[in-house]
Amino acid sequence: YDYFLTFHQEVSLVWASRWSAAKVLFLLTRYVPLVDSIIILWGALFRLELPSPHFFYVGAFTSRLLHSLAGILMLRAWAISEKNPKLTFFLSMIFGTAVVSTVTCTAIFMKSVECEFIPVRAFAFHGSLIRERIHGFRPFFATH
């Protein structure tokens, strides 16, 4: 609903502006959840088996969204500090470390996932019980 309410403002204020980090982060934050929702619904409607590329796309989109949100907060702090060079370096290092560690942890987790399809009749969505190959991992339920 928000997309339709603010679309004309987005076109005039964001699309008309020159490309910048803020514009890229805005567009990622604005449209990645939309694409993510479509992928999740696609998997739910067609009962994709896990692990499937669908499952990995959801993980990748979630990571990308979190990085975009962190980037927006970083740009805000940078702008408030009047582009302080020390803060610029510090925020860049923290952001880079966060991105690398998140991507690494997500990749390790995704490679270790084993799934078992279990139908859930009480819900419109179907799900899978996700187990990691490493012993001792607590399984959880994921809709798809």
From TrEMBL:
Domain DUF6533: 1-35
Statement: the UniProt record of this protein carries the keyword Transmembrane: yes
Top-level taxon of the source organism: Eukaryota
InterPro entries reported for this sequence: DUF6533
The keyword Protease is assigned to this record: no
Keywords: Membrane, Transmembrane, Transmembrane helix
Residue runs in coiled coils: none
Membrane-spanning residues: 24-48, 54-75, 87-110
Entry protein name: DUF6533 domain-containing protein
Record organism: Galerina marginata (strain CBS 339.88)
